[in-house]
Amino acid sequence: MGPAAGSKKAVASDKGILPNDKMVYFHSLVGLAIMAIFWFMSPIEPITPVGMKVVGAFLGMVYLWSAVGSLWPSLIGLVLIAISGYAGQGALGFKAVFLNAFGADVVLLTLFSMILFGAIDEAGCTKYIARWLLTRKIINGRPYSFMAVVWFTCYVISALVTPITGLILMWPITLRIMDSLKIERSDKIWPYFFVGMFAVMTLGQPFFPFMGAQLIVVSAYGSMTGVPADLTPVPYVPYMAFNFIMTMLLLITYILVLKYILRPDVSKLKGVDADQLAKEQPLPAMVWPQKLMMLMIPLYLIMLLAPSFLDRSNPVVNILATLGPLGVTLIWVIFFTIIRYKGKEVLNFRDVAYKQFNWGIYFMIAAAVYGANALSNEATGVTGFLLNVLNPILGGQSEMGFVAIMFTVALILTNFANNAAMAVVLMPVILAFCGQMGLNPLPVAMGVTMMVFVAMLTPAASPHAGMMHGRKDIYSTGEIMRIGFPICIVSLIYYIFIGYPLAKMLF
């Protein structure tokens, strides 16, 4: 086809609406229709008239978050809640919604934590972390040790930044290793290696409760349960321990199943050489700003966790408790903005924000947390409605039966819709029935929080799942389903029978 033909095709596309654009318009209309239907419907007792409008706005946002995007659906949802009269009538009520939604400390924490941890990636620190882990001599001639180190590296990078960053960084490295070892696409170990790599990334994503999409869920839980502003919504150490223990159990299980049951040929991986990898992945010596950022990571965690363990009568501990996660994050952002290297700020706020800041998550957190709080408010009557409707299904269940149903629903929904949004939707149900059954809601809520990140079976499961499904040179849909589906089922079983009892002990 010559240039002329290509030009005609481009002109035709300009004059028409592309198929993808048509689907966006279709889903947009469906989401807006959901909002409109609830706006004009007669109230379903015990939901109040205002409650119906809030429910419509929230459900419309959930649909649009999954099918279209995060930014404008969040804004229109907040607009509808604002004009519903939920926060008061007229201009004062309208302003109150946006002031409370975007003035919440969790929204500000999202902004500055994305900048701070984005700066770590911009400085190239994640590359040094990956190189250090992948050049340990324990991998020499040991195929399963090599795979374990690769997968653990994926876990660390996903937890520190995002799974998307992890995939962008790790795909080229691992593909180059596979090529050097003459491992081909047709080799049996190939799909197990790469699907396992993705699974660990998605399981590791919610490790830190104070950043990323998991912050939406954690903050919604805190908002619905009325956690005071000077306290964290969930205790950080038990939360991180919960994610780490469960992910490592699942990783060990995956390795054992591969080694002793499936037994793919891994003989080519015996050629892995840590020294050779170090030569093939050359990086310049770290400069002092990079070392300082690497040091910041453990110091940041210590500053966040110290008030949980040390006596607050100590002036330093008291200051850290006063600062909280938002204040500690701001201190580090200010520090790295002040110090300079070669005439430039170590943290160039504008550049890092341009490359690393995710506006979709920012607006979604504001809308999701405020909307979730509105749903659980007595003025809407939603909690009473959920109790009435779901009581025949969940009311007569045992504790483990209730947990199994909630975790299963979370797993199914997250593979077809936005993961954080699905957890927020389930949160009022968890709180209502845990209250009715006399259960501590925190272990159930945190189990659901982890389950909604076991998202890999469809492109709609998460942005990084969409990336995985799009790499047809690495993954086929059949391989993802054949390997990913058992991973999801085993994860569900583990979280029900191991994770929930563990969460009850930790929390």
Mass-distribution shape: globular
What order do the helices and strands follow?
HHHHHHHHHHHHHHHEEHHHHHHHH
Class inferred from helices and paired strands: mainly alpha
Largest sheet: 2 strands, antiparallel
Number of E-type strands: 2
Distance between the termini: 64 Å
Radius of gyration: 24 Å
Strand content: under 5%
Percent helix among the residues?
over 70%
Average pLDDT: 87
Low-confidence stretches: 1-15
Q: Tell me the number of helical segments per DSSP (H or I, 4 or more residues long).
A: 23
Strand order of the largest sheet: 1-2
Give a topology summary.
Elements lengths: L2 H13 L3 H22 L8 H19 L3 H13 L6 H13 L2 H18 L2 H10 L8 H18 L2 H18 L8 H16 L9 H12 L10 H27 L11 H7 L7 H22 L5 H24 L1 E2 L2 E2 L3 H8 L2 H18 L5 H14 L3 H16 L4 H19 L3 H11 L11 H8 L6 H30 L1
Antiparallel strand pairs: 1-2
Helix pairs in contact: 2-3, 3-4, 3-17, 4-5, 4-17, 5-17, 6-15, 6-16, 6-17, 7-8, 8-9, 8-10, 8-12, 10-12, 10-23, 11-17, 11-20, 11-21, 12-23, 14-15, 17-20, 18-20, 19-20, 19-21, 19-23, 20-21, 21-23
